[in-house]
Design brief:
By secondary structure, this protein is α+β, with helices and mostly antiparallel strands. Helices cover 15% and strands 27% of the residues. The longest helix has 15 residues, at 108-122. It starts with 6 loop residues before the first helix and ends in a 13-residue tail after the last strand.
């Protein structure tokens, strides 16, 4: 394997002022020479998918025993770097962070060996960060220590071709990167073993320049996890960093450090009251100096989790029959401190400093597509007009004895809902059309689409089951049906005792009910539901996704029958029995099958 740039090249870097603390980038948060400010926010490496909701941050803790005078071996670290490069596309690895203590003694010959290992990444311009641990420099000093063999090799000049490097503090020991992943920019701080007052001031300047970016802070010492419980706590120096920086900065949601062992983690609340996750990873006490263990932080913004795993690519790549007894134990670490999942609602966690864009309300005319036979929205209190122009207007009603405030208007709504308002129903009030509304005369020979926005409260349970979202007063018996229970509504969109959507209809071609089932829904969030019938078969969709339990037997149309339709209630035998518990947003009915791209959500 080539050692990379020649000695002459290194001499050129020294004489050109790009080597050591005299580098021009040490003066502040400058961009690398190849990057324009417009490019700065879209940095990634070739092969990465910057828009996928799933990406991976690779983390390498203390490698010091691999670079210890004449006792080391750089092969494990090179194998780790090769693995990251090989897996970059498949696992969407967007960045690698080293947590310090690159070497044992910080001697020039050790630094030179580590330098050769890191060239594996340099040759491919893979984005990474490095920071100084106490073994890389004089541990009695802070980030104002001046020049060192570590800084000569791993100072800001090293990252002149990095797609993510954005600058360093004047002393060169603190730096930051911005990488693009999951459709947004992320800021990663690489802070020295000991941050000085001027270092803190520089960090605050960097954060002020990027007020909307979530921040991952990496440093060498912050938390430790003594006692084998896996529960971490701040060290003395870590407490100072927490008090002077992290606790005040809501954007720092994750910190990563090495130095101590064993690994562990904890969660602390900052001054804004939100959670900061603090993790310690270090395997130098394990076999072969930790075998260049690699932490993989698999971010999944679709699932709102970070899945963490720990492996040794050096051992993983060896033939099993050639592994010794100790090596077999170190291929992968699977204890609770090494393989775990962190649950983070990223939208909510970042809302304070980076609120998601709110889609503006859309005029009703924009969603009155051909075939719309009824459309109601609740963005104006007391306005229950059928905006389709077909006269299916609504009036208020309530179960006997229900108080007046069981049906109220709110400004809450699904973020992709055309109308910015909803009905809050607490079990008692509901809306209804006239008994002979035009909607009751339709039979939907071409099919139909019924769609609505729904939110369930935290305490929605079996007591609220079958409370009705959209239901006919007319029964199966009114249409001459004899199968199942003819006293059931002719058609009803309901919620089961498991908070699952249910569409039950007596179709024109069947005597009994045809029923579609959804799955249990998490509470306290908005959902879009759509029933789509193509003239023969009905399919339930949630947030545009088709569900499983849809009957294959043809279910053609809906029989005409007077009695009216209910919004937010359920009737049995033409008697209203139960009203909905939750929030209802826009509701639209179209007399044909819509494709998911035509739904009210996502258009």
């Amino acid at each position: 394997m080539s050692d990379g740039p020649s000695a002459n090249r290194r001499a050129f870097l020294r004489t050109s002022g790009l080597f050591g603390v005299s580098a021009t980038m040490l003066g502040g948060a400058s961009l690398p020479a190849h990057a324009t400010p417009e490019q700065a926010g879209a940095a990634t490496h070739r092969g990465a998918d910057p828009d996928s909701p799933r990406f991976t941050l690779a983390v390498v803790p203390d490698t010091q025993y691999l670079f210890d005078l004449d006792r080391g071996d750089r092969e494990p670290l090179e194998a780790t770097f090769e693995y990251v490069l090989d897996q970059a596309r498949e696992q969407n690895i967007v960045f690698l962070a080293h947590l310090g203590d690159v070497t044992e003694n910080g001697r020039p010959e050790e630094i030179a060996e580590a330098d050769r290992a890191f060239r594996v990444l340099d040759r491919r311009r893979f984005p990474y960060s490095v920071l100084a641990g106490n073994h890389d420099i004089d541990s009695r000093t802070d980030d104002q220590r001046g020049r060192s063999p570590y800084l000569d090799a791993f100072g800001p000049h090293r990252f002149r071709h990095s797609p993510t490097f954005r600058g360093a503090a004047p002393g060169g020991y603190n730096s930051y990167h911005v990488f693009r992943a999951a459709g947004r920019d992320w800021l990663l701080l690489a802070l020295d073993w000991r941050v000085s007052a001027s270092g803190h001031a520089w960090v605050r300047q960097v954060l002020a320049k990027h007020p909307k970016l979530p921040v991952i802070l990496t440093t060498h010492e912050l938390v430790h996890a003594d006692g084998g419980t896996g529960v971490a706590e701040l060290s003395v120096a870590g407490q100072q960093l927490w008090d002077q920086l992290i606790a005040d900065e809501d954007r720092i949601f994750l910190t990563l450090n090495g130095h101590f062992w064993p690994p562990g983690r904890t969660t602390l609340r900052n001054k804004a009251g939100t959670e900061t996750h603090l993790h310690i990873a270090n395997y130098q006490d394990r076999y072969y100096g930790g075998s260049a263990m690699l932490r993989l932080y698999h971010f999944d913004l679709a699932r709102n989790v970070i899945d963490v795993e720990t492996v040794s690519p050096w051992l993983l790549g060896r033939k099993p029959e050639r592994l010794n007894v100790l090596e077999r134990q170190e291929i992968q670490r699977t204890g609770p401190a090494d393989r775990f999942t962190v649950e983070i609602d990223f939208t909510e966690r970042f809302r304070r400093f980076a609120p998601p864009p709110v889609r503006p309300a859309r005029p009703a005319r924009e969603v009155l597509i051909p075939g719309t036979v009824a459309y109601w929205r609740f963005d104006q209190a007391g306005k229950y007009t059928d905006l389709s122009g077909h006269g299916n207007h609504l009036t208020r009603d309530a179960l006997p004895g229900a108080p007046a405030d069981t049906l109220t208007h709110t400004a809450g709504h699904h973020p992709d809902q055309p109308g910015h308002g909803s009905l809050h129903l607490r079990g008692g009030g509901y809306l209804r059309t006239a008994a002979d509304a035009p909607l009751t005369r339709l039979t939907f020979p071409r099919g139909y689409t019924i769609e609505a926005f729904v939110k369930l409260p935290k305490d929605f349970d079996g007591r609220n089951a079958w409370c009705g979202l959209f239901t006919t007063v007319a029964t199966g018996a009114d249409a001459g049906k004899t199968g199942d229970d003819p006293q059931e509504p002719l058609a009803t969109l309901n919620l089961s005792d498991g908070a699952a959507f249910q569409w039950a209809v007596f179709p024109r071609n069947q005597e009994g009910l045809s029923t579609n089932w959804g799955h249990e829904l998490p509470r306290e969030r908005w959902w879009h539901v759509a029933v789509v019938n193509d003239g023969r078969r009905s399919v339930l969709h949630v947030d545009g996704a088709p569900l499983l339990r849809n009957p294959g037997t043809p279910a053609i149309g809906i029989p005409a029958a007077a009695g009216g339709w209910l919004i937010g209630a359920y009737a049995y035998g033409r008697k209203v029995e139960k009203s909905f518990y939750g929030w209802l947003g826009d509701l639209r009915i179209v007399d044909r099958a819509l494709q998911p791209g035509e739904f009210l959500i996502g258009r």
